[in-house]
Design a protein that fits this description.
This protein is mostly beta strands. The protein has three helices and 43 strands. A hairpin with a 5-residue loop joins strand 42 and strand 43. Helix 1 packs antiparallel against helix 2.
């Protein structure tokens, strides 16, 4: 293609120098061009300009939404140029005269390129159209009359290929889809239902309908109420030692039916207490929480032992006063037979470590940690002690705290040098006292 352009340029230059044979040579150039293949006819704008300048027809005409693209042919000292519409435009008339240069003047008929249009479609029944236009990139909006629902897209767009993005939608008479029958129940119609038509529900025995038994189809295709459900009522049970009352204070007899969702307050007779305290509710034929009365447990107490009742007197928690230790179960549960779990605990005092005569210090037996005077150790704690200078321990065994008393009692005796000597076993012998190693 480049070679062919240089070839045509050479002929043009040659033609300019030989004005006498200009038209004949130009005719030869354009005839040569006319014989080229379609692929080789995409000449450069520069070459087209050179041909136009040589023919002296003046500037190319300005076309409305169109352009001059290439040379079609040279015939009888006339040059024919092709006019085409710009992108997104199309000619209103197909068979129009192309642009012709004749005797130094341009002769043509403008193709009057207009925006691309899409096929005209019929207005869908029972619909409303907004912004109706059929030109490129136009968007048409659709909506349906009241009582009708749309099947398809609410908008369509005219595309460059002169086709709509999607077919126009369809407005159909609004209908409600039948809901599924409730569990343990049925519905009288399982087909689509038109606006303002109704369906009805029922439950199998002994179930009861909770909700609306008749539903109506609305204009938006929805039902006016949620689908009902089938539930069981609750019976007031016959349990010894119990009285059930509703919130208004009316006593209910055993076997009384309570509707789904109903709430009651129940209490128990003397020597019985409720397992669940407060309001209970009927849900799907059962009470939540369950209605139960159990026997009460007699309060077991002991002097110096503190207690509190928890969980509607079903749990008792024990504690001791400051300085005392609880031995046994701190929490006990009341069983249904009226007895407590575990055993009754007791409180024991701790042992206060006093600066007794001759005692130098106290320590824990297991790690020899110092215990200051005035401190207290709990029940069953093992400790040891040491005596001051010139004092000796009466016993070297560990001391144990037992209900506020150290056993054995710590004793440090004053040691007189004349009362002690070394016996045959190399042990210290004290006058009137046992031998201590």
């Amino acid at each position: 293609m480049i070679f062919r352009s240089f070839y045509f340029l050479f002929l043009i230059i040659f033609t300019v120098k030989s004005e006498n044979n200009a038209f004949n040579i130009m005719q030869n150039i354009l005839s040569e061009y006319d014989n080229t293949t379609a692929a080789d006819k995409n000449i450069s704008p520069w070459f087209l300009k050179q041909v136009i300048n040589f023919l002296k027809c003046g500037p190319l005409p300005k076309l409305h939404n169109g352009r001059i693209q290439s040379i079609i042919k040279w015939e009888e000292q006339k040059i024919y140029l092709e006019q085409k519409c710009n992108r997104y435009f199309q000619a209103s008339h197909r068979n129009t005269t192309d642009v012709v240069c004749l005797n130094g003047k341009w002769k043509y008929q403008d193709k009057k390129c207009k925006l691309t249009t899409c096929p005209i479609f019929h207005k869908p029944a029972h619909s409303i159209l907004t912004d109706v236009a059929y030109t490129y990139n136009s968007v048409v909006y659709f909506s349906c009359f009241s009582g009708y629902s749309m099947r398809g897209n609410t908008t369509i767009r005219c595309q460059e290929n002169r086709q709509w993005s999607t077919p126009p939608p369809v407005c159909e008479s609004t209908k409600c889809l039948p809901p599924h029958p409730p569990k343990n129940g049925s519905v009288n119609n399982t087909n689509e239902v038109k606006i303002n038509e109704t369906i009805s529900f029922s439950c199998s025995k002994p179930y009861n309908l909770k909700g609306e038994s008749v539903l109506t189809c609305l204009e938006d295709g929805e039902w006016n109420f949620p689908t009902p459900i089938c539930t069981l009522k609750c019976f007031v049970p016959e349990i010894a030692g119990r009285v059930v009352t509703i919130s208004e204070g009316t006593i209910l007899k055993p076997r009384t039916l309570i509707n789904e969702g109903g709430k009651v307050i129940y209490s128990c007779k003397r020597s019985f207490i409720p397992v669940a305290f407060g309001v209970v509710q009927c849900l799907s034929g059962k009470w939540y929480p369950d209605i139960q009365c159990r026997k009460t447990c007699a309060i077991e107490a002991r002097s110096g032992l503190n207690f509190i009742l928890l969980r509607n007197s079903s749990v008792i928690e024990y504690s001791c006063s400051a300085g005392e230790t609880l031995l046994g179960d701190s929490i006990r549960t009341c069983f249904e037979n009226g007895t407590w779990s575990g055993t009754l605990p007791r409180c024991v005092k701790g042992c206060q470590l006093l600066p007794e005569f001759g005692i130098y210090s106290y320590r824990y037996s297991y790690n020899l940690q110092y215990l200051p005077f005035g401190s207290s150790v709990p029940q069953n704690t093992n400790i040891t002690y040491s005596c001051r200078v010139n004092y000796f321990r009466f016993s070297y065994e560990s001391l144990t705290c037992n209900n506020g008393v150290l056993n054995p009692q710590p004793i440090c005796s004053y040691m007189n040098r004349s009362d002690v000597w070394l016996n045959k076993k190399n042990s210290l012998q004290y006058k009137n006292r046992s031998t201590v190693s």
